[in-house]
Specification:
Layout (H helix, E strand, L loop, with lengths): L2 E4 L22 H9 L7 E5 L12 H9 L3 E5 L10 H10 L5 E3 L4 E4 L2 E6 L13 H22 L4 E6 L4 E2 L2 E2 L1 H10 L3 E4 L13 E3 L2 E5 L10 E4 L1
Parallel strand pairs: 1-2, 2-3, 3-4, 6-7, 7-10, 10-12
Antiparallel strand pairs: 1-13, 5-6, 8-9, 11-12
Helix pairs in contact: 4-5
């Protein structure tokens, strides 16, 4: 029994968005994911840190969900910037139940317990996504509320557990710091913070290491060579 994390699967089993157009690194990435997950067991848990499917709706993403559901273990899904299928938690849980996707759940305004750890997280936000002029401040404030709701859920329901933080967007990136999220991370002191979103050449600009009480690590699928990162057993 072990806990894993990986982000940015970018699945498109309908064939509408093949990832090999982004370079050789993405060639056959679906089969590579299937192979790497085959070494997990049904008792394992994997956090999928956003950008899971290119589907524009839950129905569009169904084949991708079925692929994930067939992989060993339980999966906790986090929202990413390309997860346009994402709806309310109630709608998504009903969709999963109606289609017998029994290994999928949502990490959103809540928390989960795994062993000695409380799993917390949210999408986050990235300054370049709004570089032109729009609603960056509003989105960051909203994501901060969601992250705090997750930390508070863990504090209320699992006060003796050590928090871990999962984000889609990097809270630190080549000189940029998302102050609202980092303030919460510093306050609630998760042991580690995992994030995705960065691909290709941007891997080199990722912050990995310790900041105050928290260790940070990039877990985009292409960075991990499409092998889920084991956090603990």
């Amino acid at each position: 029994m072990a806990l894993y994390v990986i982000g940015d699967l970018h699945l498109s089993l309908t064939g509408k968005k093949p990832m090999d157009v982004f370079g050789e690194r993405w060639a056959n990435h679906t089969e590579r994911l299937r192979e790497s997950f085959s070494h997990l067991t049904d008792e394992d848990v994997t956090v999928l840190a956003g950008d899971t499917s290119w589907g524009m709706s839950l129905e569009d993403a169904l084949e991708d969900f079925r692929f994930i559901d067939a992989l060993p273990g339980r999966k906790l899904l986090l929202k990413g910037n390309h997860d346009f299928w994402w709806g309310t938690a109630k709608k998504m849980k009903k969709f999963f139940a109606d289609h017998e996707l029994h290994t999928l759940d949502i990490l959103h305004n809540n928390s989960f317990v795994y062993g000695d750890y409380a799993l917390c997280g949210t999408r986050g936000w990235f300054y370049e996504e709004d570089a032109q002029d729009t609603h960056t401040g509003k989105m960051i404030a909203r994501e901060a509320l969601r992250l705090e709701a997750s930390f508070l859920s863990a504090r209320e329901n699992a006060p003796d557990k050590t928090p871990l933080c999962f984000l889609h967007y990097p809270p630190i990136y080549q000189g940029y710091q998302c102050a609202a999220l980092l303030e919460l991370i510093d306050r609630y002191r998760p042991m580690r913070c995992y994030y995705g979103h960065l691909h290709g050449a941007t891997h080199r600009r990722a912050f990995e290491g310790r900041r105050n009480a928290t260790d940070y690590a990039l877990i985009s699928a292409d960075y991990l060579n499409f092998i889920p990162k084991k956090i603990c057993e």
